[in-house]
Structure formats: C-alpha cells, structure tokens
C-alpha cells in the first residue's frame, strides 16, 4: 500500500512539474531585466581577464587551467568536509530518511535535485531495495 501511494504521489509531482514547465511562457533574458548582485564580478575586469587569458601561449593556458581545476577540487572538498558543521543534515538523520524515502535523502545529501536524485527515484519506483541501496551508497560513499 505504501509503495502504491509513493508511486502515485511521485507521478502526480512529475505531472505537475512537467505541465507547469510546458505551459509556462518562456522568459526572455536581456540586459535590462538582469539584476546584478553584489557578488558578481565587474564586467570590465572579466573582459580584461579573458583577453589576458587569450594572449597566453598554449603551455601557459594549460598550466593555468590545471591550477584552476585544482582550486575547484579544493573548494569542493572543503564544501563537502564542512557539511556536518550544522549547515547541513547530519549523516545519521540522512540514513534514517534514506530508509523511509531514499530519493529525499539523496536530494538532502546532494543539496538539491540533480541526476543522482532522478536515478534514485527511478530505482525506488522500480523496486524499493535498489533505491535504498543506491541512496545509502551515495550518503555513505562520500566519507
């Protein structure tokens, strides 16, 4: 009974999201309706940085890209490492949620709906156990 209710609720949610996205009018993004935030870089500085990058040799570009990729990896590692400092959901709570609703636990762990969430939802809809195992692998696999 619980599985049938879960499947029906997932189907209703998918129907609502797809019908809203199809019936919504497209939003045209222009320079006039973009509101710059305080964290956005200065466009002149960005343009100058792009021009400077284009003027580098092939080897210098390659080295610069390696440095940037290393900084991105370090940033992601710090972000993942700081997850249990009160800003995210504790791992024990995620495991309990994964037992009850595996896709919800994956979404909370990942910080939003992404491809891992959709894979887990599909596995949970097909059979409950593969979705549960996949959710636990994702939650426990980052440690």
Keywords:
7 helices, mainly alpha, elongated, 143 residues
What report would you give on this structure?
This protein has 143 residues and is mostly helical. The chain has a domain at 82-143. Helix content is 72%, strand content 0%. The protein has helices at 2-23, 43-54, 58-81, 91-100, 102-110, 115-126, 128-141. Helix 4 (91-100) runs antiparallel to helix 7 (128-141) and helix 5 runs parallel beside helix 7. The two termini are 35 Å apart.
Number of helices in the DSSP assignment: 7
**Rough shape?**
elongated
Report the structural category: mainly alpha
Number of strands: 0
Please outline the major beta sheet.
none
Radius of gyration: 21 Å
Q: State which percent range the strand residues make up.
A: under 5%
Brief digest:
The protein is mainly α and 143 residues long. The chain has a domain at 82-143.
Produce the secondary structure layout.
Blueprint lengths: L1 H22 L19 H12 L3 H24 L9 H10 L1 H9 L4 H12 L1 H14 L2
Helix pairs in contact: 4-5, 4-7, 5-6, 5-7, 6-7
């Amino acid at each position: 009974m619980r599985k049938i209710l879960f499947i029906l609720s997932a189907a209703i949610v998918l129907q609502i999201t797809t019908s809203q996205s199809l019936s919504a009018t497209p939003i045209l993004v222009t320079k006039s309706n973009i509101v710059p935030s305080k964290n956005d870089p200065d466009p002149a500085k960005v343009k100058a940085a792009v021009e400077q990058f284009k003027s580098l040799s092939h080897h210098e570009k390659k080295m610069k890209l390696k440095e940037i990729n290393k900084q991105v990896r370090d940033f992601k590692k710090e972000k993942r490492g700081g997850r249990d400092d009160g800003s995210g959901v504790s791992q024990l709570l995620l495991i309990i949620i994964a037992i009850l609703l595996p896709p919800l636990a994956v979404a909370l762990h990942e910080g939003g709906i992404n491809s891992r969430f959709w894979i887990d939802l599909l596995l949970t809809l097909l059979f409950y156990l593969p979705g549960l195992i996949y959710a636990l692998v994702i939650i426990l696999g980052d440690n």
